[in-house]
Amino acid sequence: MPDLPCRRRVAPRGSEVTPRVVVADARAYAEEWYQALRKWETITVDAARYSSGNPDGARFRVVGTGSWGSAASSGVGFTNTLSYVVVPHHQLGRLTAQEIARGVSDMTESGLPELAQLGRMLERVRAETSPATLLREGGGWAFPRERTARYGVAVLTLAVRLGDRNADGHLTVLQGLLRTGGKGC
Asked: What is the pTM of this model?
């Protein structure tokens, strides 16, 4: 799996943003999410112990998620940890593996056939049975273009469902390209 640099292009200052640049940015954004899901780079964070006076009633608060559990019931004493997967452009820059897995499962088990298909595609990304990259060297879709564009839609759909507000506009662009038969892909 190649370690690809960010291929995101931004229009130079003072120039207009053309449809070509908008599409290129959407492809690059999808590629960043795609590679994050394939690499599954994790960061482990220790949970913070807090007490409001009575040490016997101390509880753990898992930093970053707002999840609460008692020290006695956690079974791990005072060394609670949580693993995050590093994702691009998310507000915190990371999501728990459980959050991502739940998002994929929700899509896969959806009653909407299109959403279920996108979820199955995401399962292939995580299993590394999908293409190594969505983009060819020049920044366009890798062959076959329609399939890699659908993977782009799948990862951006997940990103939107996980709360990445920046992914929404890019997802709309890619969905529009697929509806029009890939004109401008």
From this structure: 0.73
- Phi, psi torsion values for 81, nearest 5 degrees: -135, 165
Joined tokens for residue 140? 């366009």
φ, ψ dihedrals at 123, nearest 5°: -60, -35
Structural domains of the chain, count:
2
Question: Can you give the residue range of the structural domain that contains 31?
Answer: 19-41+87-179
Q: Assess whether pLDDT exceeds 90 at residue 135.
A: yes
Task: Let me know if residue 95 belongs to a domain.
Answer: yes
Q: Is the domain of 154 the same as that of 104?
A: yes
**CB-based contacts of 89, cutoff 8 Å, min separation 6:** 29, 32, 164, 166, 167
Least-confidence region, from 40-49, 59-68, 149-158: 59-68
Chain centroid to Cα 166, Å, comes to 11
User: Does residue 31 lie in a domain region?
Assistant: yes
